[in-house]
């Protein structure tokens, strides 16, 4: 018996990596009976007589699990957005951040394509998100500017790169790991969207850890979040909410709300608060149906 990590899963085969190499494995039949599906990122016990014919016998307990993309045990996520083409969407960024907070995954914000705009345009956003506790990096994956600042985050961690299509995730990974040579695609001029270039989910070794490229997202549904817990997924709200007059304050219409006061005084960015209210209503509607 040996232990390793699943770095990719294709057509019923699980590719397990450890210090001895890469092993092609199948899952044991009992997994189906127990409704267990091994995922990329799983730490597993396996047996193999050779590198081509192995079996995964046990999936160890997961620290977290994402449904889309199907991946487990993520330590941190690089949330990649472009400054332009497509333009930076704080609503989509906040949606991603809520998901990461709910899954207890550290988030590093990366705004790509700085060559298409000015850093002055991005600094107000940088100030807001850094104040909320998120690292915020402005880079250009086309020429590698600023990419070296991301490398320290990768050491000994399982990371994923996530973001909408066309923001330059694959180009960024090519800069981080020059040997990858991932396929990239230009953004469609008509739709201002990128083509999907990532074919399957795979962990790639980088800086004593692993990093995963993930397919582009067009939307994220709140599946495992209750509206009562939404405020703790906004760090700046979580910090102030104990000062609200009423326990269980939803920070929308209640009197004596410390969060609304902080918004009025400019301590919390108004667009972050508006997104909180928007997501809250979305969760209420979702529960009704």
UniProtKB/TrEMBL annotation:
<dbReference type="GO" id="GO:0042274">
    <property type="term" value="P:ribosomal small subunit biogenesis"/>
</dbReference>
<dbReference type="GO" id="GO:0005525">
    <property type="term" value="F:GTP binding"/>
</dbReference>
<dbReference type="InterPro" id="IPR010914">
    <property type="entry name" value="RsgA_GTPase_dom"/>
</dbReference>
<keyword id="KW-0378">Hydrolase</keyword>
<feature type="binding site">
    <location>
        <begin position="163"/>
        <end position="171"/>
    </location>
    <ligand>
        <name>GTP</name>
    </ligand>
</feature>
<protein>
    <recommendedName>
        <fullName>Small ribosomal subunit biogenesis GTPase RsgA</fullName>
        <ecNumber>3.6.1.-</ecNumber>
    </recommendedName>
</protein>
<feature type="domain" description="CP-type G">
    <location>
        <begin position="63"/>
        <end position="220"/>
    </location>
</feature>
<feature type="binding site">
    <location>
        <position position="244"/>
    </location>
    <ligand>
        <name>Zn(2+)</name>
    </ligand>
</feature>
<dbReference type="InterPro" id="IPR012340">
    <property type="entry name" value="NA-bd_OB-fold"/>
</dbReference>
<feature type="binding site">
    <location>
        <begin position="112"/>
        <end position="115"/>
    </location>
    <ligand>
        <name>GTP</name>
    </ligand>
</feature>
<dbReference type="InterPro" id="IPR004881">
    <property type="entry name" value="Ribosome_biogen_GTPase_RsgA"/>
</dbReference>
<dbReference type="InterPro" id="IPR030378">
    <property type="entry name" value="G_CP_dom"/>
</dbReference>
<keyword id="KW-0342">GTP-binding</keyword>
<dbReference type="Pfam" id="PF16745">
    <property type="entry name" value="RsgA_N"/>
</dbReference>
<keyword id="KW-0547">Nucleotide-binding</keyword>
<dbReference type="GO" id="GO:0046872">
    <property type="term" value="F:metal ion binding"/>
</dbReference>
<dbReference type="GO" id="GO:0003924">
    <property type="term" value="F:GTPase activity"/>
</dbReference>
<keyword id="KW-0479">Metal-binding</keyword>
<comment type="similarity">
    <text>Belongs to the TRAFAC class YlqF/YawG GTPase family. RsgA subfamily.</text>
</comment>
<keyword id="KW-0694">RNA-binding</keyword>
<dbReference type="InterPro" id="IPR031944">
    <property type="entry name" value="RsgA_N"/>
</dbReference>
<keyword id="KW-0862">Zinc</keyword>
<keyword id="KW-0690">Ribosome biogenesis</keyword>
<feature type="binding site">
    <location>
        <position position="257"/>
    </location>
    <ligand>
        <name>Zn(2+)</name>
    </ligand>
</feature>
<feature type="binding site">
    <location>
        <position position="249"/>
    </location>
    <ligand>
        <name>Zn(2+)</name>
    </ligand>
</feature>
<dbReference type="InterPro" id="IPR027417">
    <property type="entry name" value="P-loop_NTPase"/>
</dbReference>
<comment type="subunit">
    <text>Monomer. Associates with 30S ribosomal subunit, binds 16S rRNA.</text>
</comment>
<dbReference type="GO" id="GO:0005737">
    <property type="term" value="C:cytoplasm"/>
</dbReference>
<dbReference type="GO" id="GO:0019843">
    <property type="term" value="F:rRNA binding"/>
</dbReference>
<feature type="binding site">
    <location>
        <position position="251"/>
    </location>
    <ligand>
        <name>Zn(2+)</name>
    </ligand>
</feature>
<dbReference type="Pfam" id="PF03193">
    <property type="entry name" value="RsgA_GTPase"/>
</dbReference>
<feature type="domain" description="EngC GTPase">
    <location>
        <begin position="72"/>
        <end position="218"/>
    </location>
</feature>
<comment type="function">
    <text>One of several proteins that assist in the late maturation steps of the functional core of the 30S ribosomal subunit. Helps release RbfA from mature subunits. May play a role in the assembly of ribosomal proteins into the subunit. Circularly permuted GTPase that catalyzes slow GTP hydrolysis, GTPase activity is stimulated by the 30S ribosomal subunit.</text>
</comment>
<keyword id="KW-0963">Cytoplasm</keyword>
<keyword id="KW-0699">rRNA-binding</keyword>
